[in-house]
Design goal:
With 249 residues, the chain is α/β, with parallel strands linked by helices. It contains 7 helices and 13 strands. The strands form 3 sheets. A 7-stranded mixed beta sheet has the order 8-7-6-9-10-13-12, sandwiched between helices. The longest helix is centred in the N-terminal third of the chain and has 18 residues, at 69-86. The radius of gyration is 18 Å and the shape is globular.
């Protein structure tokens, strides 16, 4: 398949099933989208190396996010309320990919001891100075060295589809999640009945940004590999998947 010239690319095995056979789907902005022949995960493969992907995440994203502060905090409060109603009303809450910190702020306002981590310094600074959050960190989750079994709730809202190494992420989520804790995830759902056809026209198809496109089966299989499992899936009219994940008992 044709790829960009003068760029460094990597070919990966399927992060869900370790398969190495893929069916070509389409090319968008010179990036090849494929489907794993073994488990049906849709992904970009080969893809630019992480250093190139990281360049697409700059402080402009968090700045734009912060401009909608009222709307983002309102939505975050609703998300926290859903978790609180169904699973957990107190404890430590970690928002992975926290950006400007609105989910962490909502968790704090709702009675949780809130934490956040993100790769963008501007967003972390905004959350600390403008929202008064004390436990925000810059960098990747696995580099934070949080204690084992530390968090009662971990949220990843529109995050997991961006992460270069899914197995490092899920292994760390397993390690830091409390025994009765939950992971709340929102991610585009390639298996949703409202996904645009042809798939290449779907608005969530974003080269160098959304690296993977899960359905419930592929996402659950990824987490099963690390002793975690989807225990609840919320229905939605938008083509996104909203699931809660817990330790396999």
């Amino acid at each position: 398949m044709k790829t960009k010239e003068n760029s460094v690319w990597e070919t990966i095995k399927c992060p869900v099933c370790k398969g190495s056979s893929f069916a070509d789907l389409f090319i968008k902005k010179e990036e090849p989208f494929v489907r794993c022949d073994q488990c049906s995960l849709v992904l970009i493969n080969p893809r630019p190396v992480y250093e190139k992907i990281r360049e697409t995440y700059n402080n402009d994203y968090s700045r734009d996010y912060a401009k909608k502060a009222h709307t983002k905090l309102k939505r975050s409060l609703k998300r926290v309320a859903l978790v609180k109603k169904s699973f957990r009303s107190e404890g430590r809450w970690l928002d992975v990919g926290c950006s400007a910190g609105f989910v962490a702020k909502a968790a704090s306002l709702s009675g949780f001891n809130a934490y956040g981590v993100d790769v963008e310094p501007w967003g972390i600074n905004y959350g600390s100075t403008e929202l008064g959050l004390n436990n925000l960190s810059i960098g990747l989750l696995e580099d934070q060295a949080y204690p084992e079994n530390f968090f009662n709730v971990i949220s990843l809202y529109d995050v997991i589809e961006h992460v270069p190494n899914l197995n490092i992420l899920t292994k760390e989520l397993k390690r830091i999640l409390a025994p009765n804790g939950i992971i709340d995830i929102v991610t585009p759902d390639v298996g949703h009945f409202r996904v645009t056809k042809p798939l290449s026209d779907w608005k969530e198809i974003k080269p160098s940004e959304h690296l993977y496109y899960f359905d419930k089966n592929t996402l659950n299989r990824l987490f099963n590999n690390h002793g975690l499992s989807i225990t609840k899936k919320r229905f939605g009219f938008k083509a996104s998947m909203k699931v809660c994940i817990q330790h396999i008992k």
